[in-house]
Structures are given as C-alpha cells and as structure tokens.
Amino acid sequence: MLPLAVLVLLSQLGAADISIEIASSSAQVEARFDFGQVADSVRFSLIRLPGQAVEFVNLEGVGASTQSSEEDGLVWVTAALEESSTSVRYRVSGSLARIPIPVPVVAAEPGAGAVRISVRGLDADARFHEGFPRLVLRSDGSAVAQLDNVPSFVRPPPRRSAWSVNRGAQLLVVGLVVGASVVWILRARRRTRAGSS
Amino acid sequence: MGVVLPVVLVIYFGLVLGIAIWTSFHTRTEEDFLAAGRSIGPVVGGAVLAATQISAGTVVGTLGRHYLTGVSWWWIWFGVWAGWLVSAFFVAPKLRRFGALTVPDYVGHRFGSERARALAAVLIIVSYTIYLVAQFQASGEIALAVFGIQPLTAMLVVVASTALYTLLGGVRSSSYIEFLQTLIMVTGLVIAVPVLVDHVGGFRQAVSFLESLDARLIGWYYGPKEIAAFGVAFGLSIAAAPYEMTRFYSMRDERTVRQAIGVSIGFQFIIGLSVMAIGLFTRVLFPTLASEDQASSIMAFEVLPPIVGALLIVAMLSAIMSTVNSILLVTGAGVAHDLYGKFIRPDASQAHLLAVNRIAIVVLAIIPIFFALQKYGDVQAIVVEQSKFIASFFFVPVVIGLNWRRGTAAGAIAGMLGGFLACLIWEFTGQSGFASHGIDAVEVGVFTSLVLFVLVSRFTRPVPEENLSTFFPKRS
User: Measured between alpha carbons, how far is B3 from B284 in angstroms, rounded to an integer?
Assistant: First the structure.
C-alpha cells in the first residue's frame, strides 16, 4: 500500500463532496472540499493499494506552486490555495476493492455530517449497508453516505450472494446472545429443581 | 444503524433495571449494600474487577490514545497488571481477611486513628471526583458522535441511570450488572476486530499505511521513560485502588479474591488487545478525527455492522456506568460511613446511614458534571492524573502499611498528605520538564509518601497490638 498525500494547511473542513464513478476496470473520483476560508495551503493523505494506479487528472483552486515529494513511500503534494475550496479529480485503475479518497489533515466539525460520498456504477443487488462507509441506495441508482469525517477509502459493498465478515459478525452476536440465554435458562431451571427437591 | 441501536439499548437498560430491582429485595443492611453480603464468587468477582478497571478511560481514552499515538501505549498494561499482582499477593488477601466495609475502615483500624480514616476518606472523595469527570466527559463524546445530542444531556442520563441501580441494590446489584457488562464489553470489542481487519484489507496493509502516516504509530511514540511513568502511575494506583479494594470485601474469602484477580487480568488482556487493534484500524479508516476521544464511537456508529456497532456502543456505556457506579459506591460510603457515621452521627441507625449514603451518591454524582463540561483535557489524560493522585497518597499506607507492622498513624497521615501534595506540586510546576529530567509526578509523590511514612513512623508511638493482630500473624 502506497499512501499518497497532497499538502495544504488549514483549521477546519467545512464540507466535502466526493463522487465516485465505477467502471469495469477503473474508477473516476472527484473530491470537492470547502474549507470556509482561504488559507495558504492544505494537505491530504491518500492510500494507494498494491496493484493500484492513481492518476491525477486535475487539481482546481490551487496555485502554481504545487509540489510533490516522496518519503518512505509517502508522497506529499504541497499546494497553495487560491480559493476557500479545492477540487481533486483522479482516476484509479487496477484493483478496485478499495477506492482511495484524499483525506485532509484538518477535521470537520463533529456531528455536522459534513462529508457526502456518492458512488455510481455498483451492482444493483449489492448489500449496500455492508460496504465502507455504509451506503444507502437512492432512486437515481447512486449509493450515498453522509459522514462526519472523510474516510481513507471507499470499499464497494459485496454482492447479495457473497459471504462477508460483516454478516458473520452479526450472526455470531445473535448466536452468542441466544446461546447465553439458553444456558442461563437451563441453569436457572436446574437450580429451581435442585431447590425444590 | 436504524432501529437496531434503540432496540439493543432498550434490552440492555431493561436487563440492568431488572437485575437492580431483583437485588434490591436482598439488600437490607449496610453490609448487604456495601459488601453484597460477602457472597461474590471468583468468575463474577473477576468480571466485576475487570468492569471496574475497564472504564471510559479504556474504551474511549485508551482507544483514542492508540488512535493518536499507535501501539506504544499498549505497554502501560504491564504496569496495570503488575499493580494487580501486587494487590493479589500483598493487599487483597489481608484486606479480605479484615472484612471491613470501606477502605478508610482499613486505614482507621490498621493505624488506630480516626484522623487517618477521615483524611483517607476526604482524599478518596477528591481524587475520585476527578475520575468521574473523565467518565462523564466520555459519555458526552459518545452522545455527540452517536446520537448528536448535547454532552450535558448524556451526562445527566448516565448519572440518573447509574445512580438508580447503585441506589437500589448497592454492591450486590452492581456486581451482577458488571458481570453482564464485562461479557458485553469482551464480546463487542473482540467481534469488532475481524470486521475492521476485513475493512482495512488485512494487518500488513494497515501497518504499512500507519507506518507511512507516522512511523511512530507502530514504533515508539512515547519514549520508554514516559511509558514507564504512565505504567508506574497505573500500577501503583491499581495496587491500592479504593474502588477495587471495596470489591474484595464483597467476595467469599481470600482464595476467591486471588482467583478473581486472575480472571480479571484475563479479561483485561483480551480487552486491551482489542482496544489497541480497534484504535489503530480506526486511524487507517479515518486518519483525521476532530478528537481522538471520538474514535471509538465513530467506529461503532459508522463502520461496524449495526448489531455489532450497537453492542459496542452499549459496551462503552457499560464501561462508563460500571466505573461511575463503583466510584459512587466508594465516595458515597466515604461520606456516609467514614465521615458522617464516624464523626457526625456515630449513633446513627443502619437505615439512617443507608439513607445518607444514597443522598451522598446523588450529590457526588452531580458535582463532576460541571467540570466535565469544561473539558480540561482528553479522557485518558484525566484518568492518568487521578491515577497519579491515588498512587501518591494511597499506595504507601495500603501496600507498605499492610506489610510493615511498624507503620504508625502519624506516619500514615504524613505519608498521605505529603504524597498528595508532592504529586500536586510537581504536576503543576515540573511537568514541562519531564522530557529533560524524566521524573514524573507519581514517582515524586510515592517517593515522598514512602519517606515520610517510614521516617515519621520511626519516631512516633507504635500502633497497639490489637489493631495489628488482624493484619500480621502473631509472633511465636
């Protein structure tokens, strides 16, 4: 996994709108960030998975002094901000098991639900709530998540027929609760019988 | 999460209320209320000790520290477990044999001094009020992240529900409820780990990303000296923690206490590992949270599948409630049993003392809310501070006092006061110099307490033999 970063320094993230269009062999991502104020620079980190290529198409709202450097597998891109908002467009090819998202180093206000992620091109029969983040299918065919924080990546949800750790974990919890209840009831009955005899 | 979280919460609070009502029928005397009639066994006892130890400081604070600083915080657990082992071999059996109701009871009897008892009660109340601040602050963080409600509302709900079950059944109800809470915590935390591993794409990918983000996350964020200082603070405070020691009194006998400590360490090992893994994986998923204290609730609410997430949120609330409950039992008893019952109304009836205890619990639960709303630091930092104070004034009179018969009342008073003040002064004057001198306030506090305890004891009248005979075998 090779993290890639774009550098810009600010105090708070006002809003983020991330659109992902998944095709058969690649995904197009457009991530728009609103910082509410103009500042000198901003910084993002972006995970690049093994077997995955990330090609930047366009950076908007940044100055000409944008630079990039790589240290220990981490690519830093420092960009001067010309406006209070910036937009990053890139193409991800190769493995699409996780689609990386540029994460600004500044956080959004807690509880504000400032981060909106929209994914298109997913299978209609996918279990949307088992992806990361949990997605909700809209009538226009897109799957949407509203979060407080920008995630490192979007993990497309599994197909309905596929087994998933999420599903296994839920079944395990239900099984444990039912099993513990049965054991407790049996022990209580045994004690009652022992007490009455 | 939809309807799953409300349903799980209703089931959980229903169970808690049911246990509290059931146990209230068995709570008639002060001994029932404060020591569960000495009836708790090793498994329930071990779970109770774990639940008391695992607080908001762990599921919110420690998890947040792992999120922020990586794996090195894990090493402080060895300090915690060392403290438990000291307690198991040098403290718990003797205290259980003594069979008091409160920890100041021990201080008063061991040193034959009501002044020492009163001082211990006051210092315990002060230190644990700080601890409650951390618990309430954590409940506010969870409420804001999960339910979007204001921290004050969440704090009032936690106080009301915890005070209710504490008031109804005392230690007996809290013991069975904490057994349930430990099972929920272990289940929720352990099941969350594979789900997160699956999301991040495996351990190697997670480690690789964290290493790139900040190499200290998987190495040494804190230096060995700092880790040692934190570990010492936790270890020394655990070895003599009044809220844990009170639980020893409720167990059947000395053997049960030792077994329970072993069971408790087992639970803590599992919980500690899970908390570290969850903190690190949450950093991979959300590298920049506004507050590290939100890592646990964000992860439970936004990452985990609904049933597992709901279980984990309940586990976090359980951890807070179980610790708040334990602290309220100790501080309430400090006011009612050790101060009111001994100095103000020594002739008070059992019913009267029980009523005062319950009023004290309500009042002492409300005071820390004010401080929690000010947010003086992150949850883990507040927990560390109270641990330092507890260790500084209590480790020596308890651990040394139980194992050195020459300790006197004057020595205990000097040790408690001196340790507390030394820690306080060092904390507010010398902390910034930690990196250069490497000496933490807890080390200064405990050392001062030890020196004063030994020196003053050497030059003052020994404690009468009838007081010592409970703790030291007669010389043949």
Answer: 28
